Amino acid sequence: MNKNVLYALRNILRNKANSVITVAGLSVAFACLILIFLYVTQEFSYNNFHVNANNIFRVNYSVKWANGNVNESALLNPELSQVLKDKVPQVKRCTAFRSAQKQTMSFEHQNLEETLCITEPDFFKMFSFKVLYGNPDQFLKSPNELVITKNLANKLCTIGKCGIEDLLGKTVSFMNSGDQPFVISGILDNVPKNSTLQFSALIPYKYERNFSTSNNYFGNSTIFYQTNGNNNITNTEAQVSSVVKTYYQGMIDVLESHKALTDADDFQPFMIALKDTHLNKVQSDYETNNNKASLYILSAIGLLILIIACSNFIMLSLGQAFKKVGEVGIRYMLGARRTSIFGIFFSENLILSITAFVLGVIIFVLFLPTFKNLAPNEIYTSLINIPRVVLFVIGCLLLIAFSTSIIPVLKLNNIQPNLLSSKKLKLGKGNGITQLFVTLQYGLSILLIILTILVVHQINYMKYKNLGFSSKNIIDLRIFQLTNSEKLALRDRLNSNPDIINLTLTDRDYMGGRSSDAVIKDNGDWVDTRILNVDNNYIPTLGLKLIRGENFRESNLNSKSVIVNEKLLADLGKKEDPIGNTIRMSGTVYQIIGVVKNFHYDSMEDEIMPLMLRPKTYNGERGNFMLLRYQPQQLASLLPFIRNTWEKIIPGKELDLNFWDEQLNNRYQSEEQWSQIIGYAAIIAIIISSLGLFGLTLLTVNTRTKEIGIRKINGAKIGEVMAMLNKDFVKWVVIAFIMATPMAYYVGRKWLQNFAYKTDLSWWIFALAGILALGIALLTVSWQSWKAATRNPVEALRYE
């Protein structure tokens, strides 16, 4: 065995406390680093498995409205697919795609809830989804064809008691397609986890109007095109953009005439490569997506934790180096080269790094279930690239071992040989490198603590601020899969229960999707207005405040009466009494019968938009959600009643029941996940920093044992000795707080700009973080300081 390795092992065992502290901090950092590396590389791998991925693009557009707002979207008219193939020679294939979300599929008198998507024949030639059975060249060319995935096929095989191949030619139906039979013509392998397009079944566009969709001025589908592969991408993009603008010229002219757009150039199409759609800021409702900035932030957090752990490593290595000055001095005098001295440190630090890595892998495995709850997507083991991980790990180990070895060697190299041999070096006071690393560690820790407190404070502000309506004691039933007659039967039966105070049908539950249209002002200008389709029970069920006019009545539910919010009135410029006034939208004239106080139907990230309540759901039409306000003390008996009623009226269909206040709070799930991620990072950072400070205190106390003994013999009290040992460490933490505060203030302000409604960046957030960091630091160093201060001075001086 190499002499350096044997020496390193002996030295590690000789300095057990130092070794345990180093390995403990570094192993936690390795666990975090592995988690973050696997997650980030996975998120950047989306859609890479497609053979034609480099030649496939998604069409998007940007609209700059006359009011200054800029919207970017990927929703377009599905007819554009054929137009692009006809008008742009470089477009080899093109397909429209949209999701119908979860739909009730019926097969041999049994119902399944599956993700249904709608597309065109070119889809199977452009994308590399593996075909198990069927001819992909013929898929979806007939209007009643259906292509399914292997997972769904296995479910159908269980129901039909047949083999997968036997499913070809069998029929299924969907509730919202009028029980139209669809013939299974193909079976695909399961969709890869790193595909932005996720589905269980695919049907052609003939029946797409049967399924609800978000309302958009320019369409409801995404358009993908594939180039020939040997053309100039920029030139092709310019031609595609020109065709899209020409296609929408009529719409653009209408918007200009209503002064919604200043000129035609305010509508600009642009392309996004397939590989970039998952992490692009222009996100499609029909694709899985993530935020590229969040991945960079997560990577930065992992890097910060690693820096803190390596700072510990370097500080403790430096401390051990000062204990070995005599030995190093003798080696230099005997002719040892700097490389051999470096080899001694490198061997020891590499062994410690490998040990920490092994423990880090164990921590990673234990922490993986928790990480699944923190991140938007879990880490899929099937997507792990083993060679890339091995190279990453080897690179990290060598980099850490090198960086933690070179600094002690350089430090000793700058010291005079006579000092090296005389052992007159001391750790702690006056050591600039040590002070630098302690300040860096605690500065980063304080930064994370401040950000954690800020994020939690903002989340609580959004959750508990008055939304303008009451979401407590309301149950949300998702009923979009029911027929109108089933919706009405369910409503009437539930209304018979006295424990249900109010019940309403509506097309939105504020959790996803939106519908908007243009309301024309008297001067011809245009106001983008959100539409909520409701009934006459909507306002009392939600507890909305009607400040003018009256609510809908059963006598005017079928009329053109509407209720608007304050924001719409302000944008329309109707300062006088608006009751009885008319407004125009999509060629229809509506009469205002009431005004409600502004309320937050979107999250706090968005400003309240103009809103119109339209009576459309009284007969079940568009009634996708049923909101029930109940007596809270009767909930235990009410839930079985709802389930039994559902089973009697809609047997065989799954009940989707949620408590509305919990759902609305889930709108901030992303922010809560980030608060937990940053919180965990802060805890890990402070633990690692405290471990380093503990080890540094231990080394400092050991090097000042004689000084402490002399001071005590001369009458120094325990408190005075503790103050002497603690003051330098406290000073470093205070300096770290001063350095971290402006950085945290800047980052916090930038983050809060994402919210239309936000809390203040109060002084107490910074003060609390500073007190926590200082208190933890004092607890860490005071234990060793107290032990040193209470030690018998005779023991310290016995061998001097």
TrEMBL record:
Location in or out of the cell: Cell membrane
InterPro entries referenced in this protein's UniProt entry, alphabetically: ABC3_permease_C, MacB_PCD, Macrolide_Exporter_MacB
Domain ABC3 transporter permease C-terminal: 300-417, 681-793
Residue ranges constituting the MacB-like periplasmic core domain according to the UniProt record: 19-241, 516-611
GO CC terms: plasma membrane
Membrane topology according to the record: Multi-pass membrane protein
GO molecular function, one term: transmembrane transporter activity
Chief site of localization: membrane
Name this protein carries in UniProt: ABC transporter permease
